[in-house]
Design a protein that fits this description.
Length: 138
């Protein structure tokens, strides 16, 4: 299925080709991140110099490469928000996509207005924790 990823702020297309292109920031370092456009696939490519010193559990920040706005979720801590359009369903509204911005935490949630689909080995644990905490804001 052809998926198109959009910035929720400026609506720029973030995957002009196979990879989703984002700016990533950690402390005082910034770089370009190339991410898989396949849901549930967590391959992440960036400058090796950028990723040195980033450890499991560290929180990264993702920015739109077009408008430079932060893509942090305003309702779910430690998550990034994008919009997603399924090219197999023309005319449908973009879906809300949230993925963990915690290093090596594999959790992605896709919300279509009615249901939430989970991707990644950490998604179920995070979903359960948020339901218990009452912090599952869509």
């Amino acid at each position: 299925m052809p998926l198109t990823y959009l910035c929720p702020k400026c609506r720029a297309v973030l995957n002009p080709n196979v990879r989703v292109v984002l700016v990533v920031r950690f402390n005082d370092r910034k770089g370009l991140a190339l991410m898989s456009s396949k849901l549930g696939e967590y391959k992440f490519h960036c400058d090796k110099g950028f990723y040195e010193g980033v450890h499991k559990g560290d929180t990264l920040e993702f920015l739109c490469p077009v408008c430079s706005e932060s893509l942090n979720s305003s309702t779910m801590d430690n998550f990034t928000e994008l919009l997603l359009i399924n090219g197999d369903r023309p005319g449908t509204e973009p879906r809300l996509l949230r993925f963990s911005r915690v290093s090596e935490q594999h959790a992605t949630f896709l919300y279509d207005g009615e249901t939430v689909k989970e991707f990644g080995e950490d998604a179920e644990i995070i979903h359960r924790r948020m339901m218990i905490d009452g912090n599952w804001s869509w």
